[in-house]
Amino acid sequence: MILRELSLRGFRNYRQAEMTFDPGVNLIVGDNAQGKTNLLEAVCYLGSGKSFRAQRAGEMVCFGQEFADIRGTVFSQEREQSLRFVLFSGSKPRQMFRNGVKKRSLEEISGVLPTVLFCPEDLLILKTGSAQRRRFGDLALCQLRPNYDAALTEYNRILEQKSRILKDHFENPRLLELLPEYDLRLCQVGALVISYRARFYQALGKAARDYHREFSAGAEELGLEYKTVSTVDDPFAPTGVLTGKLMEHLQRHARAEQESGQCLTGPHKDDFTVRLSGMDLKTYGSQGQTRTAAISLKLAQRELMGREFGEEPVLLLDDVLSELDPRRQDFVLNQIVSGQVFITCCEPGRFTKLGKTIAIEKGRVLA
Ligand code: ATP
Ligand code: MG
Q1: Does 30 contact ligand 1 (Cβ within 6 A)?
Q2: Rounded CA gap, 210 and 30, in Å?
Q3: Burial, 206: exposed, middle or buried (Cβ in 10 Å; 0-12, 13-18, 19+)?
Q4: Which of these, 312, 364, 281, lies nearest to 36 by C-alpha position?
Q5: 347 pLDDT band (50/70/90 cuts)?
Q6: In the chain, what is the straight-line distance between the N-terminal and C-terminal CA atoms, in Å?
Q7: Quick one: what percent of the chain has pLDDT higher than 70?
């Protein structure tokens, strides 16, 4: 996929901007706080309908404006296509268009402009808390499988309702009568979530192992293990079986949930671990090993998406190269010989020769 043109109106600090891009490497340069990451956010949002940093769509609308308009022309699936999102500062729902036709679900724009974002925080995901790892996995999997996206949204919706019951039942005990129904739904949808994740992490681990082997010149063997609710001994089991296992765990913790007023069990607590030649990275890994493994995971994510869609996804490297030593920089750059890449940096230095340079200042593109 190649993003050819992008037009932004009222998006973050871009009042109005038009840009054209190189099919290869695009180097986005500028001082701090000029709009480099905002530009990558716009590209990511255009392709996925998701922001890697905004909690609400309204945050992306330029201060004082009523709406933001993001439009892009993409060469994808062997033809020119257009994508457009309109976001509103108030509660009005966003609008999305593909080739000028209004669409209702993300599924209908899926595969036109898949993106893989890589930022400095991603280098730490194997050391930090499980929430970041879930976010990493979910962002990737939602783009790969729109049905997973739908299941996860539904799961989170039920979870929120159940949380409210657990919080409010102290004052209103009759609410507990509703609980069995919510629990069953939660386990049914949770089973689906686990099913998708098990397959995704298996494929991701396999691809990451190959990258890491090459990266470490055969010295280290990367192993990725998906961790879910403890009663689930086989996450590949049919969803009916998984539902039963989730119910079993829930029943064991039902009392604790009611006493604490919190949802304590379910795939919203899922995680994954990475081992290098058997050693747990989170506990024992060195800084360098952790970074190398994180890069392998990112490249693996890109490969899975490329395989799924039959074209290279657009790679967005936000400030990440400058965080890496020259050997790791070269490894990443040598792996991305094809496909479109956006690289942001303050000091272009050794990267200027890579492709087209786009200079950004205060939300404007300098000619
Ligand atoms: P750095 O090199 O520090 O990462 P950057 O060029 O990536 O900088 P961005 O994160 O893109 O910078 O942000 C640029 C500016 O956008 C910030 O100064 C921020 O205040 C501004 N900004 C963020 N959201 C909005 C918004 N909704 N409306 C207007 N401006 C915004
Ligand atoms: Mg930035």
Answers
A1: yes
A2: 35
A3: middle
A4: 364
A5: confident
A6: 25
A7: 100
Q: Which of 11, 27, 38 to mutate to test the pocket of ligand 1 (most atoms within 8 A of CB)?
A: 38
Q: Residue 35 phi/psi, 5° resolution?
A: 125, 20
Q: Is the CB of 38 under 6 A from ligand 1?
A: yes
pTM, rounded to two decimals: 0.91
> What domains, with CATH codes, occur in the chain?
1-114+320-367 (3.40.50.300)
Longest dimension (CA), the chain: 68
The answer, yes or no, to whether any atom of ligand 1 lies below 6 A from the CB of 89, is no
Phi, psi of 286 (to 5 degrees): -80, 165
Tokens of 122: 């991603």
Q: Model confidence over 227-279: pLDDT tens digits?
A: 999 999 999 999 999 999 999 999 999 999 999 999 999 999 999 999 999 99
pLDDT digit string, tens, across residues 294-346: 999 999 999 999 999 999 999 999 998 888 888 888 888 888 878 999 999 88
Atom of ligand 1 nearest to the CA of 63: 28
